Amino acid sequence: MSKYDIIVVGSGPGGYVTAIRASQLGFKTAIVEKENLGGVCLNWGCIPTKALLKSAQVFEYLKHAEDYGLSVKEYDKDFGAVVKRSRGVAEGMSKGVQFLMKKNKIDVINGFGKIKSGKKVEVTGSDDKKTEYQADHIIIATGARSRELPSLPQDGKKVIGYREAMNLPEQPKKLIVVGSGAIGIEFAYFYNAMGTEVTVVEYLPNIVPVEDEDVSKQLERSFKKAGVKVMTSAEVTKVDTSGKGVKATIKTKKGEEVLEADIVLSAVGIKTNIENIGLEDVGIATDRDKILVNDYYQTNIPGYYAIGDVTPGQALAHVASAEGILCVEKIAGMHVEALDYGNIPGCTYCMPEVASVGLTEKQAREKGYEIKVGKFPFSASGKAKASGTPDGFVKVIFDAKYGEWLGCHMIGAGVTDMIAEAVVARKLETTGHEVLKAVHPHPTMSEAVMEAVADAYDEVIHL
Ligand SMILES: Cc1cc2nc3c(=O)[nH]c(=O)nc-3n(C[C@H](O)[C@H](O)[C@H](O)COP(=O)(O)OP(=O)(O)OC[C@H]3O[C@@H](n4cnc5c(N)ncnc54)[C@H](O)[C@@H]3O)c2cc1C
Asked: What GO cellular-component annotations does this UniProt entry give (predicted)?
């Protein structure tokens, strides 16, 4: 039986990053994967969606070329080519992980991994052959898949999840997106920009419900302006797929309404991959569908760990990677600081983009903080005006007493690349005054951060 120091089960951004860090630290490492290397993120999540969104954005530029003084006589979209490009990008990224595994001397074991007591992993290959491997430490990183609602069973054709949504053979004319978290909103933006008639149905009163309410409202305005129908405080109670398309019954405060569409995309969250992987045999504790871990990702059974979407905490690629690195560094005996889940940035890559970190204004008030709030609209930013992207703003929230930067919320072009400033500043426990005195380059969208902070301290210049 092959013996390793560390075996990682699952090769998403949690698993493969963990394996690389383990190898860097001198551990003999293997990774088990039943599909393509790279997990949901590289194959069916973060990366292929961003490729689709880029095509949509280029298409939007073409549509609005005249706004920039340009005339594009003929342009069209080729939906199949857009999807093909996205799949190509994903494939390339997965090959990149293959290269990284080789470079870091990590053994890749193809097949379905099941953990066993005695620190063993049984891998069933495509030929159904079972092989056992032994390790001192076993890290579970099996991730998650699209969650199904009982009222919205997915048939993969008319009622679909995210995998099908990014790989449709034909562009739907009408699409209903159920759920307005990052995944639902990104697909809504993509399909609307490509010319599909899109309706977003959200159960809660606001779209992107985890975001600050001002951001949710602004995004709703932008989406409505772009032609997306937005239904909030609304619920799909029934779908009828017996006809040519889908008839979805939607319950709102005003009563019931039946909407017709070609396809319904269910984007109501994720379901962890914890079935049949041996958790019960080994005795690993779970709660509400997640594997329970401590600050260092140790499960209740010594020698077994879990990281990424399969554990509690934000289901994001950068969280999965950070958890994996921390987990193996702890195994290596390094002094590690537990992850601060309050300082994790979250991004939605529609247009305008949304990015945030820390507390919303409502959360800060609920926690009893006395706060200073600053806001700077991109309509007052020279760079945003020059770029033709004046929609959105930066909003900052500070603790009035000690100057702690409690939260930062952005909506606008390119803000997903700007939020890291707030993450680093918060990590360094920077106060508003320090951000204010850190000179930002002109003209950039990032000046809006400095100006929003200035606004919080009544020193704003360009308003
Ligand atoms: C459409 C979409 C867009 C997204 N966009 C973003 C984004 O922009 N930014 C962001 O941060 N996050 C995004 N996410 C979330 C992100 O993809 C996940 O948080 C991330 O992939 C989780 O990483 P993971 O390593 O925990 O699991 P996964 O990426 O799910 O990887 C788990 C891997 O384990 C394998 N596996 C499962 N069970 C077994 C088994 N028994 N044996 C062997 N292999 C197994 C699976 O095949 C898979 O490859 C998006 C998700 C989706 C669906």
From this structure: cytoplasm
Cα–Cα distance for residue pair 299/292, rounded to 1 Å? 6
Q: Is 9 left (phi over 0), alpha (psi -120 to 50) or beta?
A: beta
3-state helix, strand, coil in the chain (%, to 5): 35, 25, 40
Ligand 1 and 190: CB distance under 6 A: no
User: Which tens digit of pLDDT belongs to each residue from 112-156?
Assistant: 999 999 999 999 999 999 999 999 999 999 999 999 999 899 999
pLDDT tens figures, 152-196: 999 999 999 999 999 999 999 999 999 999 999 999 999 999 999
d(CA 116, CA 5): 16
How close are the terminal C-alpha atoms of the chain, in Å? 69
Do 123 and 133 contact (CB within 8 A), yes or no? yes
Asked if residue 45 belongs to a known ligand binding site, the reply is no
Q: Which of 236, 268, 300 is the last residue of a domain?
A: 268
4 CA → ligand 1 middle, Å: 24
**Averaged over 297-318, what is the pLDDT?**
98
Q: Give the model's pLDDT for residue 1.
A: 80
287 plus 222 within the same structural domain? no
- Which one, of 220, 225, 212, lies nearest residue 375 by Cα? 212
Just list the catalytic residues. Answer: 442
Say if residue 180 carries a ligand binding annotation.
yes
Q: Evaluate: CB of 144 within 6 angstroms of ligand 1.
A: yes
How many whole angstroms separate alpha carbon 103 and alpha carbon 454? 47
Distance CA 326, CA 311 (A): 14
Report the pLDDT averaged over residues 207-216. 98
Q: What is the pLDDT of residues 324-343, one digit of tens each?
A: 999 999 999 999 999 999 99
Task: Say how far apart CA 414 and CA 24 lie, in whole Å.
Answer: 34
Residue-range definition of the domain harbouring residue 165: 159-268
Mean pLDDT across 200-210 = 98
Element holding 197 (H helix, E strand): strand 197-201
Which tens digits make up the pLDDT trace of 265-292? 999 999 999 999 999 999 999 999 999 9
- Residue finishing a domain among 286, 321, 341: 341
pLDDT one-digit tens code per residue, 63-102 = 999 999 999 999 999 999 999 999 999 999 999 999 999 9
SS3 of residue 132 by DSSP: strand
- Cα–Cα distance for residue pair 207/205, rounded to 1 Å: 7
Q: Which of 360, 348, 362 is nearest to 412 (CA)?
A: 348
Three-point CA angle 192, 50, 22, nearest 5°: 155
Are residues 202 and 124 part of one domain? Answer: no
Query: Taking a C-beta distance cutoff of 8 angstroms, is the pair 199, 227 a contact?
Result: no
Distance of CA 205 to the CA centre of its chain: 21
- Ligand 1 pocket, 327 CB below 6 A? no
